[in-house]
């Protein structure tokens, strides 16, 4: 049956005016977006780190350093697809991805299914193998004050 592994990913970016808000590859209408070298998609970044961590392949910064101009404004699903390719090259397959997005506004419930489907396509899995949940920070800290957003992800891989 093969060995199972789990990996944890986390990301946080500032919310700023003049940027698009992209979560899990889905653009969400809002007056602010996430600041970063790429499109700053915290969901894709956390998921990428979760996959890489589960396979013992380092982290997103090693593979896609923000100091490298080739990654400027890159859609972060590119990183997630590449992480999937890397874990597959090392004999793993993606079993499940669980993501929690933490932000005060906007509500992502109307976009949750599109985010799940987008992540599932990037990972080559059925959308039923992807879970996306949203929470607020109850007004506490930078996320609660609407200054930032964060995401946590857990990926489960199976070694063939």
Entry keywords:
60s Ribosomal Protein L30, Chain: A; 5-stranded mixed beta sheet; 7 strands; 5 helices; two-stranded antiparallel sheet; alpha+beta
Topology:
Elements: E1 4-17, E2 21-23, E3 26-28, E4 32-34, H1 42-54, H2 60-63, H3 77-89, E5 92-102, H4 112-123, E6 130-135, H5 141-144, E7 148-159
Parallel strand pairs: 5-6
Antiparallel strand pairs: 1-4, 1-7, 2-3, 5-7
Helix pairs in contact: 1-3
User: Mind telling me which CATH architecture this is?
Assistant: 2-Layer Sandwich
- N-to-C series of helices and strands: EEEEHHHEHEHE
Beta-strand level of the residues, as a percent range?
25-35%
Characterize the overall form.
globular
- Kindly give the count of domains: 1
- Total beta-strand segments: 7
Report Rg.
Answer: 15 Å
Low-confidence stretches: none
Structural class: alpha+beta
Task: Determine the CATH topology.
Answer: 60s Ribosomal Protein L30, Chain: A
Sheet with the most strands, sense and barrel status: 5 strands, mixed
CATH class: Alpha Beta
Q: What order do the strands of the largest sheet run in, or round the barrel if closed?
A: 4-1-7-5-6
Give me the oligomer status: single chain
Q: Give the proportion of residues in helices.
A: 25-40%
Distance between the termini: 7 Å
Chain-averaged pLDDT: 95
CATH superfamily descriptor: 2-C-methyl-D-erythritol 2,4-cyclodiphosphate synthase
What's a quick, concise take on this entry?
This protein has 160 residues and is an alpha+beta fold. 29% of the residues lie in helices and 32% in strands. It contains five helices and seven strands; from the N terminus they run E-E-E-E-H-H-H-E-H-E-H-E.
